[in-house]
Design goal:
Helices cover about 25% and strands about 35% of the residues. By secondary structure, the chain is of the alpha+beta class. It folds into two domains: about 230 residues, Rossmann fold, CATH 3.40.50; about 120 residues, Beta Barrel (OB fold (Dihydrolipoamide Acetyltransferase, E2P)), CATH 2.40.50. The strands form four sheets. Strands 7-8-9-3-10-11 form a six-stranded mixed sheet, with helices on both faces. The chain has a five-stranded antiparallel sheet with strand order 2-1-4-5-6, covered by helices on one side. The chain is globular and about 75 Å long. The two termini are about 45 Å apart.
Length: about 350
């Protein structure tokens, strides 16, 4: 059976950068295109919307061809059953909330349009604000209004371009869960572009990681972020520690590696040569001021605190344990330990928290 959405195209930009995207979508969940600015994410969205015509390849949806460079077939944007939420929302400043929603229903009779608009305002939690213009709405209300305008024509595919990036951090955090709930209620296939790791993890059912114009990894959010395919992607996805290691043997069914002069035990992913990278997320590192009486942790590393960075209630503790290591603690945990630069601690790292990826020999 053919996939719901099939994407396989190449596009070259005037600056010479080449975007090559190949993937399929079979279900109505949220597929996140994650990557840094300039990686090609928005180009994929524009090709799906019909705002760009790729020079090679095809896009097919629901058995229909939206574009095919070899045959010259191309379905213009207004004929694609797509709803799109732009990064800046693109609301009409001269229209009120009801007018912005109703603008997407030009073919409906006035009474049907009013009913649709009223129903959408209720669903969005904006009833009572229908006469307000965009500048009279909060950032969160504008975001909901823009989402409603993208949905009011009942699209078969929803495209979201950095839907929360125009909001301040507290509003982003508040609306992230709300947006996830609404996307689940909609139950339509959604492609969401973001460079924000928290947004990708909170909203995605599946993540496609884009870098340098190509999709480099595809999988469930938790798997992609905890098991990056290579060292470059590990750094992109915020893995706290990416350390070059040398494979020196096996012990207790685990692979023994050496980072500097420090030995580590980690699961063997297979296919490694003499050298590898050890990827360790900061959440997987616990700190103690002295050795616990009982600990099953394989890796117990004497370390020295070389720096502390406070970020959003969390503390990134930078350590020297023969190689640079990062631990991510809550502010309360850090306060309980009374950590300060220069302190000696014991870093406890479960073997399963270490993900080994190949390195050039």
């Amino acid at each position: 059976m053919a996939p719901l959405l099939s994407v396989d195209f190449e596009q070259r930009h005037p600056d010479g950068a080449r975007i090559a995207a190949t993937f399929e979508v079979d279900d109505p969940g949220v597929t996140v295109l994650f990557g840094p600015s300039g990686s090609g994410k928005s180009t994929v969205l524009r090709v799906l919307a019909g705002l760009e015509r790729p020079e090679r390849g095809s896009v097919r949806f629901g058995g229909n061809t939206w574009s095919d460079a070899s045959s010259g077939a191309f379905l213009p944007p207004h004929r694609r059953p797509v709803g799109m939420l732009f990064q800046d929302y693109a609301l009409f400043p001269h229209l009120d909330a009801a007018g912005n929603l109703g603008f997407g229903l030009p073919e409906e009779s006035s009474s049907v349009r009013r009913d649709h608009v009223a129903g959408m305002l209720r669903w969005l939690g904006l009833d009572g604000l229908e006469r307000r213009r965009p500048h009279q709405l909060s950032g969160g209300e504008q975001q909901r209004l823009a989402l409603g305008r993208a949905l009011i024509r009942k699209p078969a595919l929803l495209l979201l371009d950095e839907p929360l990036s125009a909001l301040d951090r507290p509003t982003q955090e508040k609306l992230r869960g709300e947006l996830r709930t609404r996307l689940r209620e909609l139950y339509i296939p959604t492609i969401l572009v973001t460079h924000d790791r928290n947004e990708a993890l909170a909203l995605g059912d599946r993540i496609l990681v884009m870098l340098d114009g190509r999709i480099r990894q595809d999988g469930a959010p938790a798997e992609v972020f905890s098991r990056p395919a290579d060292a470059e992607l590990a750094r992109l996805m915020g893995t706290g520690t990416v350390a070059k290691v040398r494979v020196i043997g096996h012990e207790h069914g685990l692979l023994k590696v050496k980072a500097g002069e420090t030995e580590l035990l980690a699961p063997d992913p297979g296919g490694l040569g003499t050298h590898a990278y050890a990827c360790i997320r900061g959440e997987g590192v616990a700190l103690e001021l002295e050795a616990p009486a009982q600990a099953a942790t394989r890796n117990r590393l004497p370390a020295r605190v070389v720096g502390l960075d406070v970020q959003d209630g969390l503390v990134r503790v930078h350590l020297d344990c023969g190689f640079p290591l990062e631990a991510l603690l809550t502010a309360w945990a850090c306060e309980d330990l009374a950590l300060k630069t220069g302190d000696s601690v014991l870093a406890l790292v479960k073997a399963t928290a270490i993900h080994l990826v190949p390195a050039p020999e």
